[in-house]
Design brief:
With 413 residues, the chain is α/β, with parallel strands linked by helices. The chain has eleven helices and 19 strands. Bound molecules: S-adenosyl-L-homocysteine.
Length: 413
């Protein structure tokens, strides 16, 4: 008689056929602490040479004594050689596992948001390393950022289809992360049909975004709560939204009662969409645009003696890699100073940064320094991070990247 016992994972089978990757002595500690990355220098390459593996291949990771630590996929070409998908060494990385994880991720978003507009999957934090899925109602935009996820492309499509049967799935496989993994950069419709523009609702405000040629996946859901928080500060005010993209901050500020909003961006396409979004929400007469390099535009506005009550600076990441730190910091500092000079006597500066390598404290210090430099008194009134659809993995500091500091800027005390 065989006794069937229930396991924690319904898809559990024997993974005997999978290749092994053996770690050096004590290198399992971080993984045991909850992290899911295996770096190349942690692998005992004497026993398990990395050259023997295909990018994306699935393996069982073992500690130096041969005890299984979990199931992972690997990419010998990447510094992050392995990413653990399950701590159950018998777990099979399959469509059914992906479906299960997608459902767990979906239930978080459904708890938090009324509209079906959110980051549905945020990689490692949702137990799906290398996968990003942004949802725009019936349409989803997917990034397969690692070789392991790239290999699973068909299963990802099948699992997403099983969970929400979307009208269309777009692969935005043109992220810089893919370059580091040695993967080709492509954008293609993976399933269904694809519209010219995508609709979304955020904090009750409607937006359209370019469906294929937008920034990243088309929208930055991570600032949702910060944009909502700003609403209380803008009634009757003059607002400047720098690096506006399609008006995420600016148009919401106009809807929240700002008198006038100016959106600055270097992209004509982005500013066309600012206008569309202003029209969509009946605030077209309040929202203006200015095309150009943000640094030049801010200097020009200062020369013209323009003043704003509220200024949002939400630039692209200036510190993409550690080695960019010094130059990036200088750019952030310059921007914050330029913005402070444009603020009215009692103004609000929203200074955001999505650079993971810039700690919150460093941004705070930079705002302090900028205030001293332009002889203004700064009061930090609020500090925001990323929304719940970008949950932080407590073992993986890299998953916490977004900062949004709200600073009241007064004449010097
Ligand atoms: N604040 C936006 C997101 C910014 S994305 C939001 O909340 O949705 C970065 C934007 O900065 C892009 O639209 C890009 O076109 C613009 N950009 C990048 N470099 C720039 C520069 N030097 N000057 C002005 N805009 C720039």
């Amino acid at each position: 008689m065989t006794i069937v016992t229930e396991t924690s994972n319904p898809t559990a089978t024997d993974n005997q056929h999978l290749a092994r990757i053996k770690l050096k002595k004590n290198e399992e500690k971080r993984l045991k602490g909850g992290h899911c990355w295996v770096y190349s220098n942690e692998v005992d390459t004497q026993v398990t040479p990395l050259t023997g593996f295909e990018p994306g291949q699935q393996v069982v990771v073992e500690d130096s004594k041969g005890k299984p630590v979990g199931v992972a996929y690997v990419n010998p070409q990447s510094l992050i050689t392995g990413r653990i998908m399950s701590r159950d060494a018998n777990c099979v990385i399959s469509e059914s596992l992906l479906t299960h994880r997608l459902k767990i991720a979906l239930s978080l978003r459904e708890k938090c948001f009324d509209d079906q507009c959110y980051r549905w999957v945020y990689g490692e934090s949702d137990g799906l390393p290398g996968l990003v899925v942004d949802r725009f109602g019936d349409y989803v935009v997917v990034q397969l950022n690692t070789a392991g996820m790239d290999v699973l492309a068909d299963q990802v499509i099948a699992a997403i289809t099983k969970v929400i049967s979307p009208a269309g799935i777009l692969f935005r496989n043109d992220s810089s992360a893919r370059k580091q993994e040695g993967l080709p950069l492509t954008v293609n419709i993976a399933a269904g049909e694809w519209p010219d523009q995508l609709n979304l609702v955020e904090n009750g405000v409607k937006f359209v975004v370019p469906a294929k040629e937008g920034q990243k996946t088309g929208w930055f859901y991570d600032h949702r709560e910060n944009r909502q928080y700003l609403a209380r500060w803008v009634k009757g005010k003059r607002v400047l939204d720098v690096f506006s993209y399609v008006g995420g901050w600016g148009v919401q500020a106009a809807v929240a009662g700002a008198d006038e909003v100016l959106c600055v961006d270097s992209s004509e396409l982005a500013l066309d969409y600012v206008e569309k979004n202003a029209a969509l929400n009946g605030v077209v007469e309040k929202v203006g645009t200015m095309k150009g390099n943000a640094f030049d535009c801010l200097s020009q506005l200062a020369q013209e003696r323009e003043k704003f009550d509220v200024i949002v600076i939400d630039p692209p990441a200036f510190i993409k890699r550690k080695k960019d730190f010094k130059n990036g910091l200088t750019a952030y500092r310059r921007l914050n100073e330029l913005a402070m000079r444009l603020l009215t006597r009692d103004g609000l500066l929203v200074s955001a940064s999505c650079s993971m390598h810039l700690p919150n404290d460093a941004l705070l210090d930079l705002i302090r320094g900028a205030g001293r430099h332009v002889d203004r008194q700064v009061q930090i009134v609020h500090q925001g991070g990323q929304g719940a659809d970008h949950p932080v993995h407590p073992s993986i500091v890299e998953t916490q990247y977004l900062k949004s500091i709200f600073a009241r800027v007064l004449p010097s005390f």
